[in-house]
Amino acid sequence: MPSKADSAVSTWPLGGREWRSRLIVGTGGFRSLEQMESSLEASGTEIVTVALRRVDPQAQGSITDVIERLGLFALPNTAGCYTARDAVRTAQLAREAFGTEWVKLEVIGDDRTLLPDAVELLSAAETLVADGFTVLPYTNDDPILARRLEEAGCAAVMPLGSPIGSGAGIRNPYNVRIIVEQASVPVILDAGIGTASDAALAMELGCDGVLLASAVSRAANPELMAGAMRSAVEAGYAARNAGRIPRRLHAQASSPEEGLPEL
Amino acid sequence: MKIMLNGEERELDGGATVTDAVALVGASGADRGVAVAVNGQVLPKGEWPERVLHDGESVEVVHAVQGG
Question: What is the ipTM of this complex?
Fold first, then answer.
């Protein structure tokens, strides 16, 4: 049985490396770089996602400086890509820019739902794995697609809880459990987290980690929410390992029935 | 000659290289986290100074920004 101390310090493997924090934080949506920096610190995260966009000569401040100052690992994403072709080219640009072969692979189907395009996603994953990338795909909560992505050689599968930025939580916990049950690579709940209880639920369902952005960056107090998410991921993970009691229809007294005084 | 630089048409002298184009958007090879694609294909930083641009080519200069 893992003790409390064990679960607090135990590491988990992702992409051939060991990590302490099970919370991955997206850097999008913060109102300022200062707010992003204090929130990332409060979250205890070790991995942060970044996007790749055209250099803007007018832009102020550098996200790369902040990430380096905090000693975090920058995981580039392919956000905004609608085709396997664009996602592969974006990943290759990111590899050149960051000197990393890791990529959070996103290939979306439309801008209203931002849901993954399963066909393009699998195609991009196959191409990138063959090109030596460590592919972390943002995917639908579909156990069959998750299996296909794992078979394609992805380093993890990252099913959505609900659409990106919706804050609607985990809409299909049963599918997430099935994905966890069959996966032999890490499962990271990605997208849809709204508040701390959603993150705790993801871990209780058996996920290895949680990836979130808007829930923290667009909260009224991002720094406070970042700390809440850190606690929630740790609490959910500990609760899962602790073995919860079964759900019952009726009550079960915890105080002894024997020795009750006659009054 | 005219090239497309980050989606905008720009006039460059004949013989201009990718390094020259990168400078036009305020970046340089010394910046960390900058990457370039020419006609959609990644061009490693070491090849920027030698890669001469031709009329009608497209250059994208990208770097990291905040994103989920």
Answer: 0.92
